[in-house]
Specification:
The chain is rod-shaped. With 125 residues, the protein is an all-alpha fold. It contains 3 helices and no strands. It comes from Sulfitobacter faviae.
Length: 125
C-alpha cells in the first residue's frame, strides 16, 4: 500500500526542482540543467509509482499546479534549445566563411567569402 505522504513529498520535491530549473534557464545557468535531469527523472519515477498504487494520494489542485510548472519548464527548455541551435548555426556559418577551408568549395570553385555583402546603389530615377 502506498503512503500518501511519500506522494505529496514527491510532488513538492519535483515542484521545487522545476522552479529551480526554470530559474536556472532564466538566469542563463545552463550548466545546472545536467544536474537537474537525473533528479527530475528519479522524482518523476517515484511519483508515478506512488500514484499508480494510490491515484487519490495527491489532490487534483496539487497535480494541476505541478502540470503548470511542467508546461512552463518545458517552454523554457524549448526556448533555450532553439536559441542554442541558432547560435550553433551562426557560429558554423562564421567559421566556414572565415576559415581557410572555406576559400574553395567541394567542386574546386572559389567561394564568395566576403564578410559583408556588397550593397548596390539604386540608380533609377
Amino acid at each position: 500500500m502506498s503512503d500518501p505522504r511519500k506522494a505529496l513529498a514527491a510532488v513538492d520535491a519535483l515542484g521545487n526542482l522545476l522552479r529551480r530549473e526554470i530559474a536556472a534557464v532564466e538566469g542563463g545557468a545552463f550548466n545546472q540543467l545536467v544536474e537537474f535531469a537525473s533528479e527530475k527523472a528519479r522524482l518523476t519515477a517515484v511519483l508515478e509509482e506512488q500514484l499508480s498504487q494510490d491515484p487519490e494520494a495527491v489532490s487534483k489542485d496539487k497535480l494541476r499546479d505541478l502540470k503548470d510548472l511542467i508546461a512552463r519548464d518545458h517552454h523554457h527548455l524549448q526556448l533555450a534549445r532553439q536559441a542554442t541551435s541558432e547560435m550553433i548555426s551562426q557560429v558554423s556559418q562564421i567559421r566556414e566563411k572565415h576559415s581557410i577551408a572555406g576559400i574553395y568549395g567541394r567542386s574546386g570553385a572559389k567561394r564568395d567569402n566576403r564578410a559583408t555583402l556588397m550593397t548596390t546603389v539604386d540608380k533609377s530615377f
